[in-house]
């Protein structure tokens, strides 16, 4: 156990930027999920664009994640190029999804037309979407060529926001089930996997670098690409946020070089982000239902989103502090699950809204669902 004064290292630039970025990501993910829900409600399109988890799917997530971890632990070198290719497609798609509302809003504000350039099945591809796909693909290629940690973070943030927007939790009951299962999952794979597999599986997978397909293909075909030697042979996959410990020229933690990084897995933002999205949508529906009744709005006090966000901040700081004091990897969900779920459930119980939050809103019946029932 390190002395308590070591906690002062959390005031260095890298930890502060990591905490700030994580807070931004979880809140932005929840806000984008709310806006996406508004869009689907406005267009009455509750189709395959999003997935609402049920209890069986919530139980399957930690099981599937465990199997994926084992696969990546033993066979990562064999499937590295496939994983990288899939990540590139997912990153470009997620980045396009994240940028679309801002560019569309700008077009609308400036009065620019956005004609449809192509149609495929029931999907239409507009000029704005084509430009964004090109821009996103260019950024992904730039990430492959440079391997820069800032591009890695940008793509990771996009994946996190897109995931939270498309994978929904219907109520706090399913949310609690998922969080508790992942709570156990994270603890096992960080603290106990070494006893069974001879190494810390979670840390090993999280820190593995994938082969860069650009370098591999160019090198195998002996293509005379300019600057081939400057293209990184391996890249960090955007499955985590990484920040150099010597960020902004500050001293590295423990006096180490700036080549070392602080890391936070996307799951440590996406999973709490799903809870924040759930309570933010609940806050929105409650405010909409109460309408102009200012008295009732005031008596509700803080919205659930602020309880969850404050809890996330507390849990993340606790996780980083534990890592500093123990000098060992920590399962972030060990701290984040109770610190986010606890305040939300307690606040709902105090307000006599726990039953409503526990069961969630009634499912929306659309024309499509009615036709399927008929």
Automatic annotation (TrEMBL):
One Gene Ontology biological process: signal peptide processing
Keyword set, alphabetical order: Hydrolase, Membrane, Transmembrane, Transmembrane helix
Superkingdom of origin organism: Eukaryota
Compartment(s) of residence: Endomembrane system
One GO CC term on file: Golgi-associated vesicle membrane
Membrane topology: Multi-pass membrane protein
Record field: transmembrane: 13-30, 51-76, 82-103, 150-167, 174-192, 261-284, 304-326, 332-350
GO MF terms held by the record: aspartic endopeptidase activity, intramembrane cleaving
Family, per entry: Belongs to the peptidase A22B family.
UniProt protein name: TSA: Wollemia nobilis Ref_Wollemi_Transcript_25560_1899 transcribed RNA sequence
């Amino acid at each position: 156990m390190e002395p308590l004064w070591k906690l002062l290292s959390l005031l260095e630039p890298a930890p502060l930027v990591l905490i700030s970025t994580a807070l931004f990501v979880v809140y932005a993910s929840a806000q984008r999920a709310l806006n996406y829900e508004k869009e689907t409600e406005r267009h009455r399109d509750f189709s395959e664009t999003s997935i609402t988890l049920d209890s069986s799917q919530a139980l399957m997530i930690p099981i599937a994640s465990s199997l994926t971890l084992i696969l990546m632990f033993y066979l990562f070198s064999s499937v590295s190029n496939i994983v990288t290719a899939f990540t590139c497609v997912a990153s470009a798609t997620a980045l396009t999804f994240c940028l679309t509302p801002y560019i569309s809003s700008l077009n609308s504000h400036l009065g620019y037309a956005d004609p449809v350039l192509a149609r495929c099945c029931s999907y239409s591809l507009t000029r704005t979407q084509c430009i964004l796909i090109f821009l996103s693909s260019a950024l992904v290629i730039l990430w492959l060529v440079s391997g820069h940690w800032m591009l890695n973070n940008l793509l990771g943030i996009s994946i996190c926001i897109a995931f939270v927007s498309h994978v929904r939790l219907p109520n706090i009951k399913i949310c609690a089930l998922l969080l508790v299962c992942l709570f156990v999952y994270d603890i096992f794979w960080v603290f106990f996997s070494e006893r069974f597999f001879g190494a810390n599986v979670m840390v090993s997978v999280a820190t593995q670098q994938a082969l860069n397909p650009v370098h591999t293909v160019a090198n195998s075909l002996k293509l005379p690409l300019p600057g081939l030697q400057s293209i990184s042979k391996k890249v960090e996959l955007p499955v985590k946020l990484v920040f150099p410990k010597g960020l902004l020229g500050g001293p590295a933690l423990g006096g180490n070089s700036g080549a070392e990084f602080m890391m936070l897995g996307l799951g440590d933002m996406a999973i709490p982000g799903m809870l924040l999205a759930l309570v933010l949508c609940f806050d929105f529906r409650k405010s909409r239902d109460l309408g102009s009744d200012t008295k009732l709005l005031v008596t509700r006090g803080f919205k659930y989103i602020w309880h969850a966000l404050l809890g996330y901040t507390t849990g993340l700081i606790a996780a980083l502090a534990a890592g500093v004091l123990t000098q060992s990897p920590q399962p972030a969900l060990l701290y984040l699950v109770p610190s986010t779920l606890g305040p939300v459930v307690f606040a709902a119980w105090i307000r006599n809204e726990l039953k409503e939050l526990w069961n969630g809103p009634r499912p929306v019946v659309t024309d499509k669902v009615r036709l399927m029932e008929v």
